[in-house]
Amino acid sequence: MRSWLKQNLTAVIAVAVTLLFAVANSALLIRDFYYLSLIPLAGIVLLLFITKLETGLLCTALLTPFAINFALIPKMELSMPVEPMMILFSAIFLFRVLASRSYDLRILRHPVSITLIASLIWWFITSCTSALPFISFKYLIARLWFVTPFFFAAAQIFRNKKRIRQFFWCYAIGLIAVIAIATAKTLGNFSDLQTLHRVMKPFYNDHTAYGCVIALFLPAAFYFIFSRNSKGWSRLFFMGIFALLIVGLFFSYCRAAWLSVLGAIGVYVLIRMGMKVKWMVLFFGLGVGVFFIYQSELIYKLGKNHQDSSYDLSGQIKSISNISTDASNLERLNRWASAFRMWKEHPVLGCGPGTYSFLYASYQRSYQLSTISTNAGTLGNAHSEYIGPLTEQGVPGVAFVICIFMATFATGVRVYRTAKDPQIANMALAFTLSLLTYYIHGVFNNFLDTDKLSVPFWAFTAVVVALDIYSEKKDTNLIADKKNES
């Protein structure tokens, strides 16, 4: 007996510990100590992150579409279980970097990283001057545990191209499961638009975030169908996944998501035609300038459109330009107008990160209120990834956002045109177009304060940066000679 114990001591200890945990959990559940019963699971997660940090990142991506906001303590909601996992990942990653000093400094020197770090410094400065410092610092800390795992750590992890594919499909599998559930709920409710806007709950707060993340995944999913690693049945499987994403996008009834996909297709055509990034930016700037010059005439014409949101496709498209009766559009304009009034009072430093929803009520005007207006700070914030930072962090805040987006877009296009491996070039273009859908969608909504969009957004940005740093480039002299010949 003694010799047998010596030979099987490890197995005996494992069984004993397992039984002890089982008994302890049962006792805790009987006494209604539900939180304490999660300690064994937390221990397993901790062990996973310590021993297999990259696998921990993939598990976090897989669970993100299923995460649900939960108040662990009063006035402190976390997206469970992924935000605690992000906090744990960030702590272990930073400890490893400081202890081993093995981080690739080329990532920190990249223009996207430099701009992102500068923006985080500005976040800190504006949090110090915020009207609600506690709220602002809470938002800053949350932003840190979004970008640390899924940008700064992921950019180095994605040096291995297989990890890019694994990350994409980990999040996509969770998203596809949510799409299947939401689509099943949709099938019996075509006549009730309000119900259709809620079928994705509790996984996504509303149909706009749901449509936005589907649009974000479409270009990259299309790339993986034709990747050299997709053959035979696997290609058919990926085509099925892509088709399901299309179905989810359609039934999201999110007009901004539809427009973002169309915009990405248009930019893809321009890139394929060889147009330079600076010309694209110039044409975009001219378009914005024309809008402001002729805004009175445009608003007058848009005001004649009375088509409200509809479950009918043609009606939903027509309602995009309805600013006279469509409640969603009217409320968005109300939020924007309130944001600009707030910005005029704090043009440089803003009112503080994350404070808009707590302060905007007094800046509303009765003649701009819609049927869904509220003074409680519900139904989202400034409804724009550009106007929100302008209000909360002043002109430098929105300038940093635009610079991050432009630096990433320019990097992606450059990798597409200079990468020696065509597969790397096409991957860079696909993920750049995926990000572009968010840049366009960001005009109408902002979701980077949530885990649902921050996780894929910053990871896709890390993909573009990693492909730029770690991919082999063509001979630049040869490229120049070909341009001269043409």
Q: Would you mind describing this structure in some detail?
A:
There is one protein chain. The chain is mainly α and 486 residues long. Helix content is 70%, strand content 2%. It has 22 helices and two strands. It has helices spanning 2-7, 9-30, 39-51, 53-63, 82-100, 105-108, 111-128, 133-157, 161-186, 193-196, 207-225, 233-251, 255-272, 277-293, 295-302, 313-318, 327-345, 356-359, 387-418, 422-441, 451-470, 476-485, and strands at 68-73, 76-80. Strands 1-2 form a two-stranded antiparallel ribbon. α4 packs parallel to α9, α7 (111-128) packs antiparallel against α19 and α11 packs antiparallel against α20.
Question: How is this fold's topology laid out?
Answer:
Layout (H helix, E strand, L loop, with lengths): L1 H6 L1 H22 L8 H13 L1 H11 L4 E6 L2 E5 L1 H19 L4 H4 L2 H18 L4 H25 L3 H26 L6 H4 L10 H19 L7 H19 L3 H18 L4 H17 L1 H8 L10 H6 L8 H19 L10 H4 L27 H32 L3 H20 L9 H20 L5 H10 L1
Antiparallel strand pairs: 1-2
Helix pairs in contact: 3-4, 3-5, 4-5, 4-9, 5-8, 7-8, 7-19, 8-21, 9-11, 9-12, 11-12, 11-13, 11-20, 11-21, 13-20, 17-19, 19-20, 19-21, 20-21
